[in-house]
Specification:
Blueprint (H helix, E strand, L loop, with lengths): L1 H12 L4 H18 L1 H14 L5 H20 L1 H6 L2 H7 E5 L3 H4 L4 E4 L6 H10 L5 E5 L5 H12 L4 E5 L5 H8 L3 E4 L10 E6 L2 E6 L1 H8 L3 E9 L6 E5 L11 H18 L23
Parallel strand pairs: 1-9, 2-5, 2-8, 3-4, 3-5
Antiparallel strand pairs: 6-7, 8-9
């Protein structure tokens, strides 16, 4: 019952002007800052590890701003799930070659790091081009909320999302049928199929699968970055130039190059990266926890 009431509230909020949703979302983020003690500690620790050149007061100010954007990204999820496509087209601005996957004879992998407009980028791949999209998602423990998430992300009949707990074979089959792959490459999923690769100079468990899959399926790799714009200005999704020399035959070197690119994008827009995720949770054997 609680999940259904929450979803009803999200649906109602989605009908408000975006500038009102943005103000409510920033207020929600301030509440998260004060009451989400554990996530606040994670964000501050990540910033300490990744941006040590900043003074502690600067990092705290950045973390506070991050929580305001985080609140917006959560509250505005309903807009992405329920708003008419015409409204979304008016709010989402795309830059770059959004139609690459639609035209490409080779399958396309979009590399999409965890900025807070990640779901906006997912919508953009469905409403601004016609190639079906496959992606992986974290299945929710609440079945009502999980069903709402799936329905929201798939409502444009743009493809399929596969639970992370499943094997990769269904996704690979979808790619071979012509799907583009919306790939989220920058979270800590443990040491399995990963290598410890520097991320802002700190070893981070980094998946080798993006490089290996792109090479085995002869994929074109196009990086994509989403951004929340201030107030009611909407969203920006940047479809960047495909990487001409990625993947190579060296997955570890590819992972290093990928992390270096993500670092560059974070420095461009540091407040909107997902700092509340324990990016350095998995440690090399014998190394103490960083959190």
């Amino acid at each position: 019952m609680a999940s259904r009431l929450l979803l009803r509230l999200i649906w109602l909020i989605a009908r408000l002007p975006l500038r009102v949703q943005a103000a409510l979302g920033r207020g929600l983020g301030r509440m998260f800052w004060w009451f989400g003690r554990s996530r606040r500690r994670v964000a501050l620790r990540n910033l300490e590890l990744c941006l040590p050149e900043m003074a502690p007061a600067e990092r705290e100010a950045l973390a506070r701003e991050h929580f305001c954007w985080l609140g917006r990204s959560l509250l505005e999820r309903g807009l992405l799930w329920y708003a008419p496509v015409e409204r979304l087209r008016s709010l989402i601005r795309v830059e770059g070659d959004v139609g690459l996957a639609e035209r490409s004879e080779r399958p396309v992998m979009w590399l999409v790091p965890h900025f807070l407009a990640l779901d906006v980028a997912g919508v953009a791949t469905q409403i601004f081009q016609k190639r079906k999209v496959g992606s992986i998602y974290q299945q929710q423990s609440d079945p009502v909320f999980d069903a709402a998430m799936r329905a929201g992300r798939l409502r444009f009949d743009g493809g399929e999302i596969f639970p992370r707990s499943d094997r990769a074979l269904p996704l690979v089959r979808a790619i071979k049928r012509g799907y583009a792959f919306f790939n989220l490459p920058d979270m800590d999923f443990g040491a399995r199929d990963a290598a410890f690769v520097p991320f802002f100079g700190v070893d981070a468990a980094t998946l080798l699968a993006p490089s290996k899959m792109a090479r085995s399926l002869n994929m074109v790799v196009q990086p994509v970055v989403g951004e929340l714009l201030p107030g009611g200005d909407g969203y920006l999704v940047r479809f960047l130039e495909p990487w001409p020399d990625w993947p190579t035959d060296a997955p570890l070197a590819d992972a290093r190059a990928m992390n270096a690119w993500i670092e560059t994008e974070i420095r461009r827009n540091p407040a909107q990266y997902l700092w509340v995720h324990k990016r350095f949770k998995t440690r090399p054997e014998g190394e103490a926890s960083l959190y």
